[in-house]
User: Which sequence fits this backbone?
């Protein structure tokens, strides 16, 4: 919290009511709405307005209120500007993330397609080799298929007998 620049008595008769004018940020993480020089200038203007002869205290208070309201307006403008900047940056990051996700999806699709094509090539190669083996050695191919059938039948009979 910023230190007060000066304490001004609100009533000359009543010293207990004091107006503190401070500089510093109204919200954490935001810059001050005005710097020390602007604060001193506002304090001087307010003091002069309150101290002039022939003017009422109401005029000085209204000037102080005007100064404070202009400071609040400038602070709101800063917050609004920062909010717009943050929104723009967030939109930019969201767009980059969306683009990256699309790139990754395309890359995954390409890889899946490559794997599918490789599996198809492998299956075709195995089928060609099997046909070539059967064409070159027909008796051995028949014996291999018969042996696989015998083993499968035996496995099924054992499985059924254990199931009951």
Assistant:
């Amino acid at each position: 919290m910023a230190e007060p620049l000066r304490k001004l008595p609100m009533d000359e008769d009543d010293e207990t009511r004091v107006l503190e004018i401070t500089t510093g940020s109204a919200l954490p993480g935001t810059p001050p709405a005005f710097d020390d020089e602007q604060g001193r200038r506002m304090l001087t203007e307010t003091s002069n307005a309150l101290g002039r002869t022939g003017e009422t205290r109401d005029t000085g208070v209204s000037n102080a209120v005007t100064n404070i309201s202009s400071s609040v307006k400038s602070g709101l403008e800063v917050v609004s500007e920062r909010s717009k900047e943050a929104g723009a940056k967030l939109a930019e990051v969201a767009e980059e993330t969306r683009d990256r996700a699309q790139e990754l999806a395309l890359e995954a699709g390409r890889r899946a397609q490559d794997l599918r094509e490789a599996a198809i090539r492998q299956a075709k190669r195995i089928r060609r080799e099997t046909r070539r083996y059967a064409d070159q050695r027909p008796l051995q191919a028949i014996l291999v298929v018969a042996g696989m059938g015998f083993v499968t039948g035996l496995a099924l009979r054992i499985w059924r007998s254990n199931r009951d």
Notes: The mean pLDDT is 78. The two ends are 85 Å apart (CA to CA). Residues 153 and 159 are 10 Å apart (CA to CA). The beta strands are 4-9, 18-22.
